[in-house]
Write a structure and sequence with these properties.
Helix content is about 75%, strand content about 0%. By secondary structure, the protein is an all-alpha fold. It is built from 9 helices and no strands.
């Protein structure tokens, strides 16, 4: 167990904040959310959570995330922030990823409004962070980011769909491990 945690810590070392390919191409923007574990895991978990609601409600979670992500990215485009402020934004994304598994585990006990609010806030942090990291004033960059985000949500949704009710614990274990991973990254980033 200790060796596994050590391996995770070594593999995770600064990976959340290491986003290569900050050019302004569609392909770079499409790949950008896949190059940071914090972004990828957050979007997968939201997709998994979306499946666990009836379809009309479930579709709202990714829609809220993508909408708040896109709108905040557009509004923060060209925003100049220092390294310290960017670091704080990335830490907020990690905090959200630490809390998101708790939301998933308690999903049936929380109000849907509270869950959607939380997902919207996470989307805002991701949108602002991406706008600072990339030039989202380019429609191709914003399109690439949004398309990738929607695809990752869909992958999470379909993974949840193929895991039977009997094995739903696998999804919760995945989200809890993601939270532990985020906590490890958060501690390293302090």
């Amino acid at each position: 167990m200790k060796k596994g945690l050590l391996l995770i810590a070594l593999l995770a070392s600064n990976q959340a904040f290491a986003h290569p390919n900050h050019d302004t191409s569609f392909v770079s923007a499409l790949l950008h959310p896949l190059t940071g574990w914090d972004h990828l895991l957050t979007m997968l978990i939201i997709g998994v959570m979306a499946y666990q609601f009836p379809m009309k409600k479930g579709v709202i979670l990714p829609t809220i995330f993508v909408s708040s992500f896109g709108l905040s990215a557009i509004l923060s485009s060209g925003l100049a922030v220092g390294d310290g402020q960017l670091h704080l934004l990335n830490q907020m994304i990690l905090v959200a990823l630490i809390v998101l598994p708790l939301v998933h585990v308690l999903l049936t006990k929380l109000s849907f409004s509270l869950v959607t609010l939380f997902v919207g806030v996470i989307g805002v942090f991701h949108g602002v962070t991406h706008a600072v990291e990339l030039d989202v004033s380019s429609s191709s960059v914003l399109s690439g980011l949004i398309l990738s985000t929607v695809a990752i949500h869909a992958i999470g949704f379909f993974i949840a769909m193929f895991v039977s009710k009997k094995h739903e614990w696998i999804l919760k274990a995945f989200t809890i491990c993601s939270g532990i991973f985020a906590a490890t990254l958060f501690v390293q980033s302090i």
